[in-house]
Amino acid sequence: MHRRTCQSPFLIFTIAILVLVNGSVFADKPSEYVTWTGIGPDKWASAWLIHRHLDPGAKIRVVETGTTPTTGVSFDIPGIEPYFRDSQRTTFESLLSGFKVQNSLLIDIGQIVHDIEVNFWGGKQSEASPFVEHAFRGLQLTYGRESVPQSCYFQLFDALLHFLEQNPETHRKSALEQALAHNRQCGSVKNSTTDLDKKYVAEWHPRELLRFIGAGDKVVFIDTREIDEFEEGHIPGSINIRLRDIGRALPPEVQGADVVVPYCVKDFRAFEVAKRLKELGVTNVGLMNPWGISGWNAIGLPVAGTRGLQEAEAMQKLEMCINNPTTCMKDV
To answer: Which of 15, 171, 175, 301 meets the CB 3.0–4.6 Å disulfide criterion with 127?
Structure first.
């Protein structure tokens, strides 16, 4: 005996139309992409790239660092496929490759993001990179590092793309600065946390840190990047602790330290680690300014690793810099 099922003719007709038009009953459901909390240009440029160009209108969902997403497409989550950053390319560039993007202007923006977030060794860089970084940091100065509306980040990269479309041959400083100037219509400043940012996480010039070391203080540098990035080049004597590896207890290496300095390439990731260490009770923690290992390298301080000096040689040079900073340090 066959059991008869009662289905509404109208329901059957509706489903048929949906399948015919969309290819699936759920084809019109917006896509979702998931990332960890963070304040770096690579993360927000990637979110913009997805939402504006790769999957227009897709939802960007931000979850707490360390969370393993169970739904959506992950991006800018270290080591989680398909789209993440490593020592060779940014998440933005990973997305360009994965989606087989041929748009030369989006590729140019990928180079800019690469310059800011990955490339601290120098070499050929986009003329636009420092201006884009300045504009990005400007948003965080206006709203507070963790309070910038997503719409403001998207507006910044919209303006950058528009500028590149209109000015294919030149990146004149004055024109680019004007094009990237903050439009306050993107979001209201309710309670700027800029002053709290500075009070909460100190900033030191590397020259000050060398002075601390020379005075006998125990200064611990924490490289917050991935292992391959650390091995390629790091501040001599630093330890490699990623944000997701900092749990409920203080890392033993920082216990008893007089000064703790997390860093990454430009210290966007390092801010998250500094904040977490503060929550765990580390009072004298701060960032470098100029930012990160990029700033450290730019002023002539030694870098150890496969692309730098041997550890012992780098430590020896660092000792020389501590005793006589003028022999190796330059102003930038």
So the answer is: 171
Cβ neighbors of 33 (< 8 A, separation 6 or more) are 47, 50, 55, 58, 59, 60, 61, 72, 73, 74, 75
State the average pLDDT for the chain.
86
Residue 80 CA to residue 35 CA, distance in Å, equals: 10
122: left (phi over 0), alpha (psi -120 to 50) or beta: left
Task: Report whether pLDDT(55) > 90.
Answer: yes
Asked if 89 and 43 touch (Cβ cutoff 8 Å), the reply is no
* Non-local CB neighbours of 278 within 8 Å, separated by 6+ positions: 200, 201, 285
Report d(CA 305, CA 234) in Å as an integer.
Answer: 6
Give the SS3 label for residue 137.
Answer: helix
All residues at 6 or more sequence positions from 319 whose CB lies less than 8 Å from its CB, including other chains = none
Contact 118, 107 (CB under 8 A): no
What is the C-alpha to C-alpha distance for residues 48 and 42, in angstroms, rounded to an integer? 10
pTM: 0.84
Q: Backbone phi, then psi, for 63, in 5-degree steps?
A: -120, 165
Question: Which listed CATH number (1.10.1060.10, 3.40.250.10, 3.40.190.150, 3.40.980.10) goes with 201-327?
Answer: 3.40.250.10
